[in-house]
Amino acid sequence: MTTYNWNDKHIITFKDKDLALETKDLHVFYGAKESIKGVDMSFEKNSITALIGPSGSGKSTFLRSLNRMNDTIDLARVTGEIWYKGIDINRPEVNVYEMRKQIGMVFQRPNPFAKSIYGNITFALERSGIKDKAILDEVVETSLKQAALWNQVKDDLHKSALALSGGQQQRLCIARAIAVKPDILLMDEPASALDPISTMQVEETMLELKKDYTIIIVTHNMQQAARSSDYTAFFYNGDLIEYDETRKVFQNASLASTRDYVSGRFG
Ligand SMILES: Nc1ncnc2c1ncn2[C@@H]1O[C@H](COP(=O)(O)OP(=O)(O)O)[C@@H](O)[C@H]1O
Ligand SMILES: [Mg+2]
Question: Is position 267 within any domain?
Answer without folding.
Answer: no
